[in-house]
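Saturday, quiet lab. Running sequence design on the structure tokens for the scaffold JK sent over.
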């Protein structure tokens, strides 16, 4: 019998297996590194807090006034003043001013036209088509009140934006508006020929989802008591 043959170059046959294992380990390490990098990128993205487009110092957290703006009840004029024309005017103008400011803390004087004072600022309400009729102990005065300007107040702005952002507040968003200096500003009436959304204010309001985008809104009003909020890009 012939001697058993010994395979030649056995070491050379083992080398490809070592290289395959080494390449497999390298691919595995690269894959793990890639997965780790992707996880880190996703976590970093989720934790990234975009810059806030407003100043905390120049804005206020929106809170709804108490009572709500439409909840103010104007009491009737006392009986002993119902024959007094000036008292009637001032009472009616006071009711208009409460609706305009969302506050009962307003002062009204009607020596001729009516002047409303609120937070140190004044608005004139013109008295038009005047005329009074008396009969026995009764007296009726006919007139029309027409504001020459309007108040924009923090209370009314917050009341309106509070109602506009019910869903955002429920989802935990921060809700803020620019600060109105002195809590009140006087604006001119909207020209009748323009109509539309009214006057664009210099104030903005914001909703911010923490850790996410902040939405900015331009504020429009016709009479200081009703508002339109227009989403804008900063």
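Result came back. Writing it out in full:
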């Amino acid at each position: 019998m012939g001697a058993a043959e010994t395979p030649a170059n056995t070491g050379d046959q083992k080398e490809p297996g070592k290289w395959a294992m080494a390449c497999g380990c390298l691919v595995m390490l690269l894959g793990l590194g890639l997965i780790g990098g992707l996880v880190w990128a996703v976590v970093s993205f989720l934790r990234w807090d975009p810059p806030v487009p407003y100043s905390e110092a120049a804005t206020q957290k929106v809170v709804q006034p108490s009572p709500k703006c439409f909840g103010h009840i104007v009491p009737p004029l006392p009986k002993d003043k119902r024959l007094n024309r000036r008292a009637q005017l001032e009472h009616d103008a006071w009711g208009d001013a409460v609706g305009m400011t969302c506050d009962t803390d307003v002062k009204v004087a009607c020596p001729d036209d009516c002047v409303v004072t609120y937070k140190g600022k004044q608005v004139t309400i013109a008295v038009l088509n005047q005329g009074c009729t008396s009969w026995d102990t009764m007296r009726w005065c006919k007139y029309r009140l027409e504001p020459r300007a309007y108040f924009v107040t923090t209370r009314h702005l917050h009341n309106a934006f509070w109602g506009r952002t019910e869903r955002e507040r429920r989802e935990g968003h921060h809700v803020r508006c620019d600060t109105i200096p002195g809590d009140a500003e006087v604006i001119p009436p909207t020209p009748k020929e323009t109509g539309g959304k009214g006057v664009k204010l210099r104030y903005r309001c914001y909703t911010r989802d923490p850790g996410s985008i902040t939405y900015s809104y331009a504020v429009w009003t016709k009479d200081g008591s009703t508002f339109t909020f227009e989403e804008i890009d900063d």
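Notes for JK: The CA atoms of residues 77 and 91 lie 7 Å apart. The two ends are 95 Å apart (CA to CA). Ask whether to fix the surface positions before the next round.
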